[in-house]
Amino acid sequence: MDETRRDFLKFAAAATATAAIDAHPALAQQAAASTEPGDRVFITNEDSNTISVIDPRSNTVETTINLTSFDEDARPPFRFVTGGVMPAHAAMVHKALYHGCIDAHGAVPSPDGRLLATSGRGSSNVYLIDVVRRAVVGNRPNPLAGAQTNPERLSSGILVGREPHEPTFTRNGRELWVALRGEDRIAILDVERALRQARGVAAGAIVGMIDTVEGPAQVWFDADGQHAFIASQKVSKIDVLRVAPDAHGYSHPQRLTTIDIGAQDKPGFTPFMKTSPDGREVWFAHKLADAVSARSTAAPFDLLDTVALGDKARPNHVEFVENRNGRVVYASLARVDDDGPEGRASSRIAIIDRSAAPGARRVVDSFFSHAREAHGLWTNPANDLLYVAHEQDELPGTPNAGQTCCTAFDVSDPLRPRFIAQIPLGALRLPSGELRNKKSINLVYVRPGQRGQTG
To answer: Which helix (H) or strand (E) holds 279?
Structure first.
């Protein structure tokens, strides 16, 4: 183990104290007033194949959900650390007999906030997470459990197809649609069957496959769940489907139209989209075009805005904040700028004033995300807190050096966000060693039992 890893393991236990140093007590106290005891922030960590769970009342990591299969057996081929050697993140999933998640990526809550679906891009499957228990559905007791092994054996999840990028629940929660980026298809899962299959009591969770645009990145539904929009990371096109749910809420999809978006996304790389809270607009992040765009969710799905974000901005996700002080769209930028807070490199979040008329929406400001390569964004139900996931580790010489960080902001005034805390994600503690949580992608804020953004 090299000195960098030694240092990380030495200081990972101090993560909670470090988060407190960076927090703004007054803002944190104010923010706590809009949280509830069951609220949690879930972050998928692609390199470590883990999910970090943050309690927004304290802005600390409560637990790390393990999607790896390491240490289920005490024999060397099953261990994460063998003979004192810790594998690099890129190499660890190639260890002999590994059957866990590979490239944990997408994440989305069910409409009632009680279930989370996450995709393993490299393992071609999806996992279901019980939000209240913070546990993987289908895990079972490990017959080899002991001091040197984990108490549970990881579920195999549900095999859906090559390169499942993002899953999305239908508005009624009956189905889970998974964009298969490597197959040019959408897999449709019956959620109840998926739960039973994950628990090993049935099969047949996949009830349909839809051919769609090449390299589908994500599906998102309009407010009443009647239309599905599908973006692509290979071609400059958007598919629009009529969901056509039957009396029981199950879909019978029909393609309505395919829209050419070459004028907005010439490179053909749109990895993320989301509908506005009022359901009237769908916004797209065009990563290689350094822009976002908005379209009407009503036929003929007219273009409303194209917003340039600056050279090599590289937008990842968009998020909406609407409260009494304003209506904005935030876009997380992957670009890292050297002139961040206290001279530290940081990404930015672009602020688009959505109160302007369609066709006139532009970037009015930006703020530093307080870590590098901002990715997932999500707000709390009160729309006064924002959480940001980051792909890169924090820079050396900073309080959280070597750790991937989530950051929290008070957005009670959406046009003037105020930094609350930088939250180091620490490590998953396995019997054979500590696996650093690394490369955060999707982030969701969930309140179980309350209708959320996918509802």
So the answer is: none
Radius of gyration for the chain, computed over Cα atoms and rounded to the nearest angstrom: 21
Q: In this predicted structure, what is the pLDDT of residue 385?
A: 98
In what helix (H) or strand (E) does residue 154 lie, and over which residues does it extend? none
Per-residue DSSP letter, 345: -
Could you report the per-residue pLDDT of 411-450, keeping only the tens digit for each? Answer: 999 999 999 999 999 999 999 999 999 999 999 999 999 9
Residue closest to 417 by CA, chosen among 289, 306, 293, 328: 328
**What does pLDDT average to over the chain?**
93
State how far the Cα of 401 lies from the Cα of 192, in Å rounded to an integer. 43
List of domains in the chain: 3-446 (2.130.10.10)
Cite the beta strand spans of 269-314 per DSSP E: 272-275, 281-286, 291-296, 303-308
Instruction: Please report the pLDDT score of residue 183 as a whole number.
Output: 96
Task: Map residue 344 onto helix, strand or coil.
Answer: coil
* 286 neighbors 263 (Cβ within 8 angstroms): no
pLDDT in tens, 48-57: 999 999 999 9
- Amino acid identity, position 310: G
The DSSP output letter for 404 is: B
Q: If residue 419 lies in a helix (H) or strand (E), which one and from where to where?
A: strand 418-424
